[in-house]
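Support case: iron/sulfur cluster complex. Customer-provided input:
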Amino acid sequence: MREFAFELSFCAALEAVHPERLVARQLGASVHGKRVIDVALVSPGPGFDERTAITADAIPPAAIEADVGVGSARYYRDAFPDRSAGWAKGAVEAAVEAGFFETERRNGRLYVRQTARYPDWFDRVVGVENKPDLGRPGDLELQLRRDVSLALFDEVWLATASHVTGAHLNRIPAAVGVWRFDPATGARETVREATPLDTDGPGVEVLEERPGRTEIRTVGADAKHRQRVRLAERAYGKGWRVAAESFPACARCEVVEHSDRGPLPGCAWKGGLVHPEVECGPDCGGYDPSDPPEVDVSGARDTHSPWVADPAGRVRKQSGLDRFR
Ligand code: SF4
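Agent response - structure generated as follows:
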């Protein structure tokens, strides 16, 4: 089975079993490197309702990490002291678009404040690497060793459709849990439990491994916490579904409900779920130009997960670049 279809099926099944958690795909999962985790499962924490009230989008990390509060507005350059004026304006604009900053003018100078205090909104974060076919492992072993030594996730799991042998288990780190997942039925069987990782302490990031040489960087607890917040924000904004605007403009595209978790992009010509950005377009042999299907992806996510599509919001909307001039 193609990895993309496996991943969508797996996310659909996870969301069905854990409707109280956020399921998201393809998220940056390193501090200095380029690791991207296939799936993350984020458990809401005490401030989750406050978070959903701010915005349906991911709040940009620069805004979260800036020294800006709710009470009194701050000159925007002081909020990003190590950055250029252009960069700082871009960061302010992104934060305003996300509904997290509001701006005001004082004596012709731009001041910013938060629309709401950034809450402590998530608890556990589980990372899952998908490898439907263990006969083609690629970099699996190295990826999982990286995840365990950095310990960004509370648990790391491998999800596969393959029969898992003792030899497979011996090749991956002992802390990694293993699920066997059947994308046809959505059944998930635990082959081995995951061992909880120390997310509060420092970690070691493996950047590159070559024969006789391993490049690593230690990552402090603060940097790790920042990356967890970034990852959770991205998970909140992104989710796992294919965006409505990515559905192919092809007559052979079928809207698949897939265990009532849809709409997902399917293809009558190829059979099964398709990855539009990779598989669809004029280069595809079955491409038949047409209007893309009308789908309500946000509505499905809102219905089936704790994500809120249209928060009542406390943002006084500001729009247009004029506010920065
Ligand atoms: S472009 Fe190809 S893969 Fe995509 S829906 Fe059309 S026929 Fe299927």
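The chain has ten helices and 13 strands.

Case will auto-close in a few days if no follow-up is received.
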